[in-house]
Amino acid sequence: MSIAPTDPVFTSARDDAPRPSRNKAIARFVANRMALAGLVVVLLLFLMAIFAAQIAPHHPNNDIFRGMRGVGPSVEHPMGFDHLSRDLLSRVIYGTRTALIVGLLSSIISVVIGIIVGALAGYFGGWIDEVLSLLIDALMAFPLIALLIVLAAVLGPSLTTTVVVIGATVWARYARVVRAEVMSLRERDFVTAARALGALDWRIIWKHVVPNVLTSVIVLASLQVGAIIILESALSFLGLGVRPPTATWGGILSDGRAFILRYPHIAIFPGVMIVITVLAFNFIGDGLRDALDPHGRVAKMRK
After folding, report:
1. What global pTM score does this model have?
2. 13 falls within a domain
């Protein structure tokens, strides 16, 4: 008697352990007020980034108001002016676009690399696992910000460089989580049945194993977006991120550093935006973790 793919042996590995259904997961997330608040803030930030040209009252680079150098907030200009007499509110709004582009695109790159490396290491084991695990451990042991500074300095500052450099260096945490889960899943009955039916390894990995680790990856990715935004701000602050005069929160912070005593508002407002954005993504990540991973496996793997 042949075994059909729809038989219980092919059901998701989630059936082996109790997990919340989709409705229960949504209910858990909705019940988390901090997660909902974070989601609202992130949605507003996305709208701000998408419609920056319509929302910003002035051009972030070209509109220069003579005689307004470092002038503080007013009714007409709620965030005041920077050291070059540019409207600070407009620059902060455009900086939102840069932060979200880097945060999301770098996360996608790191997730893809992490899933590929972690799945291969966890499924095949042996020397493949040893080599890839050594690469993962070496990358996680190296000071990340130092590595980013070196790579950004070598490749030159730009938006593309920032996205690629960050995405290509922060994938190790995803690979570790995926590897641990795949090592457990490869021994489950549905994988054994797929092998018995002659399924190729690549098909088993991408069709049966990887879909069962996506929950943990989604939770971890939502928690890591804020960290990536901080990394982008750090690179821009050091002059190794996006080239000026493109508005970035880290770049505005760097501009205000020399005038922190005379014009503190230049550094305060982008700093507040970074804090709010990172907190919002962290709240969403915590909410997703509680909703999708109630047993706390992701939290344990992050330690």
Report:
1. 0.83
2. no
